């Protein structure tokens, strides 16, 4: 068989495209250092972050018998409402600081099982335009304003690159149930400067979080970007302030006394301090925000008896109870979540007071 020459030879001479086949566009981002220089933290902000990190470390290690409380919206979508909430929470932090270490939940990234709004950084205009270049300065500016109130901030770390832009303003971080098993996120946690909570897996299994703590406490080397935005190899020292967050799973809640005892026993066998934090939301409340007070009441009762294994709690809380869907042409309800449902402010305030009372009793028991 003879092959024809001509057009086929020309086709073979053409370069074969093998990269960027599904990339529609690449837009530049400022280097992390450039964003930090344009929105710098001052001495007061740095002190708020550093002092809260130190306090949280002491609480998680059992050296401080106060209770860590991470409270705030499921995710921030309206900076004005977030600052309104922050001002109220800052007052509670000041009033209850002898019993509670209150930190505001300021979540900018929303992990998705399939599709949906991915958070303020990814889509700050809530319109699908995905203007990350607008979201990053908006997020950093908001964190600066919250910290200037004397209120430290907490967030979930999802994308491994984004922490370079705002992690210096975070007092406590979380790795979510979907990413606790991820090697990338364990490596990331090993280099973060703040305490990090690993949530149990979506199936409710806690061993994956204990394994993550052991991994993140060790040194790692991995590809990263520098503050100047260049590709580099990060070598970490390991993070000794990692701990477990119990958030329930497919099998149901896991905040009960038997669950806490089982986690403490498994951690002891593994030779680690679990620093147990209980998330009153998610599967622990059957994804019903109105059931969070039931969870807190149970946890607070055990704290009152002197149970020192519970070091902290988490609440999904906003100005207005419940949640809403964004609809074209309709003004959203001010201060109400657009992701998971939250408790309203008055109910949240009551829970904070209850937790402060429980922590006070435990402090007296420890004295």
Automatic annotation (TrEMBL):
It is an enzyme of class 2 (transferase). InterPro entries: Aldolase_TIM, DAHP1/KDSA, DAHP_synth_1. The keyword Metal-binding does not apply. One of its GO terms (molecular function) is 3-deoxy-7-phosphoheptulonate synthase activity. Keywords: Amino-acid biosynthesis, Aromatic amino acid biosynthesis, Plasmid, Transferase. It catalyses: D-erythrose 4-phosphate + phosphoenolpyruvate + H2O = 7-phospho-2-dehydro-3-deoxy-D-arabino-heptonate + phosphate. GO terms for biological process: amino acid biosynthetic process; aromatic amino acid family biosynthetic process; chorismate biosynthetic process. It comes from the Bacteria. Coiled coil: none annotated. Its EC number is 2.5.1.54. Transmembrane segments: none annotated. Residues 58-351 form the DAHP synthetase I/KDSA domain. Pfam families: DAHP_synth_1. Pathway: Metabolic intermediate biosynthesis; chorismate biosynthesis; chorismate from D-erythrose 4-phosphate and phosphoenolpyruvate: step 1/7. GO terms for cellular component: cytoplasm. Stereospecific condensation of phosphoenolpyruvate (PEP) and D-erythrose-4-phosphate (E4P) giving rise to 3-deoxy-D-arabino-heptulosonate-7-phosphate (DAHP). Belongs to the class-I DAHP synthase family. This is Phospho-2-dehydro-3-deoxyheptonate aldolase.
